[in-house]
Design goal:
347 residues; alpha/beta; 5-stranded parallel β-sheet; 3-stranded parallel β-sheet; 15 helices; 48% helix; globular
Length: 347
Amino acid sequence: MPERNPNPPYKRIATEEAWASPELFQLYMKELEEKNIDEPGFHSLYKFFGGTNPRAQNLARRIQTLGEERIADMDAAGVDMQVLSLTGPGVQLFDPATATALATRFNDELAEEIAKNPDRFAGLAAFSPLDPANAAKELERSVTKLGLKGGILNSHTRGVYMDDEKLWDVFEAAEALDVPIYLHPNMLPRDMVQPFLSRGLDAAVYGFSCDTGLHALRLLVAGLFDRFPKLQIILGHCGEALPFWLYRITYMHTHISQTGRYDGVKPLKRPARDYLCENFHYSNSGVADAPPIMYVHDVIGAERIMYAMDYPWQYEPSETGILDDLPMNDADKKLFFEGNARRIFKL
């Protein structure tokens, strides 16, 4: 195992680091008891994380604190700063009006916590995707009044994806504010989850990437980036496998869109590959492995790939040693660990 550089010529900024307000975690536990919402993926995941398993209790404790334990964990891993976001499904589990009210409270709470340690934390704003006008207003308030650095979209909201133009207010606001939206996984929606559940493939092992990659492609094919050409979306986990499909996605979408086979698939202004290379940034969250990171680096570009740990869900202090040893030149390694995050989040 490579040893971590104790004095690297860069700061390590981790860009997909999860947090849950204790109030939100209690709302999740209440839903487990009352079962008012038909989301089996959510119930499967949080039944474990709200249970008595020692690993689950460890994670539940860590995700609800932004204090001394988290900072000590960062120091132990050599992480200088975390970009914090409300963990999936965030406020998106709840009805739109409730989600809007909760997003406002949690964004205020996050900003207050960041103010206590501004050199160690930055944050992304939660919003209610199915309440479009208020989602845009909350993103604007969070960026201009609270100093948050973009928005967190935990994929689908009760099975609804954001490729419907009626929901695009928040993307319009993000482009106008020049801030990114981090498209983060959610538990698989009810209509998709069943084939994954019986073999434990529904969450981070595979299901998260299936859902989030699907969402990203739905946005792309819907023409989101033709409407908002400067908009930037961030994908974690080395792009939820999409960079590895660049050729086939582009080839097939080009031909399908020209045939008129699907009413919802029209030709775009640019090849699909161009959007994935120019309207997306990528983090390596949860992937401390040189080959996939270097593939994104080489194919998408050095200015499009950045570091993330996926704390606390995948807290591995040794991974920074592995990544210090990436076969990048010094300038690109500084971009990976620090420069790209500073640029896109304006840190």
